[in-house]
Design goal:
Strand content: 15-25%
Mean pLDDT: 93
CATH topology of the largest domain: Isopropylmalate Dehydrogenase
Order of helices and strands: EHEHHEHEEEEHEHEHEHEEHHH
Largest sheet: 10 strands, mixed
Helix content: 25-40%
CATH architecture of the largest domain: 3-Layer(aba) Sandwich
Radius of gyration: 20 Å
Structural class: alpha/beta
Number of strands: 12
Amino acid sequence: MRDFERESGVVRVAVIGGDGIGPEVVGAGMRVLEAATKDSSLELRFTEFPWGCQYYLEHGRMMPEDGLETLADFDAIYLGAVGWPTVPDHVSLWGLLLPIRRGFDQYVNLRPARLLRGVESPLANSGSLDVTVVRENTEGEYSDSGGRMFEGTPHEIVVQESIFTRRGVERIVRYAYEEAGRRRGSLIGATKSNGISITMPFFDEVFREIGEEYPNIEASLMHADSLAARLVLDPQSFDVVVGSNLLGDILSEVTAAVSGAIGIAPSANLNPERDYPSLFEPIHGSAPDIAGEGIANPSGAIWAGALLLDHLGYPEAGERVLNTLEETLASGVKTRDLGGSATTEEVTEDVIERLRSR
């Protein structure tokens, strides 16, 4: 387990602003985190790295060859967004984010979704939405195992294989059961065993086996397509959802949309054992169409910062950040995607001022 500098209260955070609105929102998040910890024993030391698509266009790679070695010296990683129209998505993803997730064994992708005060859900009857998706983050359907043959001919063959290991499925399912125990005690496993006849039945078997260790958790399996529909029709009935890399990715986008806007939602890429640094980011993209206009929603990055504090052992500070963000949104200080007129800077400053007045 990594040994944070608890005695001096120093936490070292690597910051990768990335592309598009990424530097804008992560910059806002850094300022909020500094304000939230200003009068505490915790000192956040940020070190910024200019990695991303622009770095790729200049150097032919998304980060330096020794990028992971550099990041390994930090306690956490704070990421803005990655992606640019002139760089293919598979290049940007496989050149930066996926190597970090896999190199640092960040096998849990935690995506909480709540209907915050001041934010309207697109659903007429969303109720008190509060659901967390636990997504497997290092194997599954997101595999580079496969290839192409006879490219450009009528006989072209494309094969890509899903990789499910017992170790990988057991640990993500067990984490989800533990998360349900910390919350309201209900867990749904996302499956598609009616159509995917090998990997998904295996996932189901492990889900049931691990469930025997948690008799107090109300757990069941649900086909992912039906689950997606239920998340829209009856979102307040869910507590924790666990899924494979692909299914968890899709379902967490559904919960983010139901909670009001993609710009609000955070994501934590966790190495629960803390052998390596974990990574925290908003789930929205780089939004090149609004980059530099000062209107990006910083809420997702700010909430991701709250998750960072919680993971590093400062849950009260994390809760303070999220509660203050919610106060700001409830007061009507919101960006355009939430129906408001505030700029990125105005939202950020309002959160900071409220933190200072606490």
